[in-house]
Amino acid sequence: MNSCMKELDVDFDNEEQKIVVNCVFNQERPFQLYVSKSYSPFEKEKDIVVTNAVVRVYEENEYVGDLTYKPIYFLKEYGMVDYLDTSLCENKDIIDRYYTSNKIMPRIGKKYKVEVEVDGFPTVFAESSIPDKVEITDILENDDTDNLDSGHKHYFLRFVDPEVSNYYLFRINAYMQFPINYSSYYYLNVFHFSDDPALLAYHNKENVLFFSDALFNGKEYDFSFKFYNNSIFDDRSMVYDDEYVIYPCLINLSSDFSFFLKSVLLDRSMQNNPLSEPVSIYSNVNNGLGLFAGYSISKIPLKVYRNE
């Protein structure tokens, strides 16, 4: 078998730089919008975050206000994140940077548009909305625990699916509050997984459970999930009580969010396949790159106990 090789000159440095806007939003918190610049993978690492953008928000095509740049600090002396008060100590690092406004709270069913202006670039814009909230009606424990490994718990999340096409994410939220600054929280990672038949064949990973209503459109459904109870009470979690409340969540995704997630999961599934075709990551940002997409979230409290 004969083969041949040909050298190609490709100038990656002339790739046009674009503004990147990323914001996924729900009805429970203000917008948190990230603005940065794209760069070639062949460039050295550099600061690409844009801190001087003008960000305007419109609700149903009416201007409602601007988002302003806000750095988030890690306070070294306390080993904690401070979201509101940066005067607690001088020894701090910036760990997150986004644009936000406490005066603009997204609402379910409203269409939002964001415009971002950065000197030297065309104005970028995107639109999305928050879909209707799908309420969790019950949570049921599976009594058949004989087939579970030690420390695993098995539950069903019950809800009634609307008679329209929906895409969902399932996750478990758990919150820890810093003792010296009660405005600050961090998420406790609860290892969870599922073998539910509704999961889409996009190579779902643990803690990223993506599914559609193709099997149960317009019907009541019990979504099966499992989690590792010991991950809540191990030494790294800083949970010292013998009981704790976690929040299983059902997330109803906007179409833009579902298109983006499909492309990301498909791309990840191809990473170890040298014969695969490149996957284009979905973007709904005009004149730029990124994602501006809404989702609604419903959750239910679930009390768990140590050494179960």
Give a brief rundown of this model.
This protein is mainly beta and 308 residues long. Helix content is 5%, strand content 41%. The protein has two domains: 118 residues, Immunoglobulin-like; 162 residues, Immunoglobulin-like.
Write a concise keyword list for the protein shown above:
2 domains, Immunoglobulin-like, 6-stranded antiparallel sheet, 7-stranded mixed sheet, 19 strands, 5% helix, mainly beta, single chain, 308 residues
**β-strand number:** 19
Uncertain stretches: 75-92, 178-185
Roughly how many Å is the radius of gyration?
22 Å
Instruction: Please give the share of residues in helix.
Output: under 10%
In sequence order, what are the helices and strands, one letter per element?
EEEEEEEEEEEEEEEEEHEE
Work out the helix count: 1
CATH architecture designation of the largest domain: Sandwich
Mean pLDDT value? 81
State the distance separating the first and last CA atoms.
62 Å
Shape: globular
CATH class annotation of the largest domain: Mainly Beta
CATH topology of the largest domain: Immunoglobulin-like
Tell me about the biggest sheet?
A: 7 strands, mixed
How many structural domains in the coordinates?
2
Q: Name the structural class.
A: mainly beta
Name the assembly state.
single chain
Instruction: Report the sheet-strand fraction.
Output: 35-45%
Which SSEs are present, and which pair or pack?
Blueprint: E1 19-25, E2 34-37, E3 54-59, E4 62-75, E5 80-82, E6 92-100, E7 111-117, E8 124-129, E9 136-141, E10 152-160, E11 167-173, E12 175-177, E13 185-187, E14 192-193, E15 209-212, E16 220-228, E17 243-253, H1 255-270, E18 289-299, E19 302-305
Parallel strand pairs: 1-18
Antiparallel strand pairs: 1-2, 3-4, 3-7, 4-5, 4-6, 7-8, 9-10, 10-16, 11-15, 11-17, 12-13, 14-16, 17-18, 17-19
